[in-house]
Design goal:
This protein is mostly helical. It has 11 helices and 2 strands; from the N terminus they run αααββαααααααα. It has a two-stranded antiparallel sheet. It is elongated, with a radius of gyration of 21 Å.
């Protein structure tokens, strides 16, 4: 476990180093919005890292809208000013891995919104996916099995049904960390898992009947125990 943590930290530090060097390259060469960066191969040789390391750093900057990769063409500086870009990269370099409480807060804020929007926008196909995840969760809980992943699949189905691709993406980003921390802190005991069946069902029914306020309220009630647990660990 310790080795994994060190490796993860070292990877993050390497990524930050590459991002910092890309920023310096943009400034030294006075690259403007729309200008092309050197190829991944050239950057990996210049920075003395692997191409996959460069690719991951570029993908992170692309995620934040600072670079734009075009297949068969290359990677280009996004259409924002150099001052704004430098400021945003500084913020990115200061970002640390989120702690469990931050993940919980973010997830609750997202899910209250996604539940409401899902009730307004869900399709029959969305309902089918939610019901499949709900049934899988119920089956595992009743059999006394761990159902953390089925729980999160239910919530991801709701996120997809909300019709907002950005919210859906954020949920997909934080889900792996949440799964890890759920297992680490043993958040859901057996009684809470049993209660979760009823709460999931109530959320599903509110979305099915297209009642946005009720869906939001039921989601809020569902996270009450998790929120309290989070601030007692």
């Amino acid at each position: 476990m310790k080795l994994d943590t060190v490796t993860k930290t070292e990877t993050l530090d390497l990524q930050k180093m590459i991002i910092s060097k890309i920023r310096d390259l943009i400034n030294i060469k006075n690259l403007e919005p729309g200008d092309k960066l050197p190829s991944e191969r050239m950057l990996s040789e210049k920075f003395e890292v692997t191409r996959s390391n460069v690719r991951e750093a570029i993908q992170k900057l692309e995620f934040y809208g600072l670079l734009k990769s075009i297949p068969q063409s290359g990677t280009f500086v996004a259409n924002i000013g150099v001052t704004a870009m430098n400021g945003m990269i500084e913020d990115i370099l200061r970002l640390e891995e989120p702690d469990f409480k931050s993940l919980v807060e973010t997830r609750i804020l997202l899910e209250l919104k996604t539940a409401r929007l899902a009730a307004l926008r869900r399709t029959e196909q969305d309902l089918l996916k939610m019901k499949e995840a709900l049934d899988a969760y119920t089956e595992k809980v009743l059999n006394g099995e761990d159902a953390v992943q089925e729980d999160l699949l239910f919530h991801l189905a709701i996120a997809k049904a909300c019709g907002n691709s950005t919210m859906n993406t954020f949920m997909l980003i934080i889900t792996p960390e949440i799964i890890t921390n759920f297992e680490k802190y043993h958040v859901c005991d057996e009684n809470q898992a049993q209660k979760g069946i009823q709460e999931h069902t109530e959320i599903y029914e509110a979305i099915k009947t297209q009642n946005p306020q009720l869906a939001k309220q039921k989601m809020k009630e569902h996270f009450k125990m998790l929120y309290q647990y989070c601030y007692n660990i």
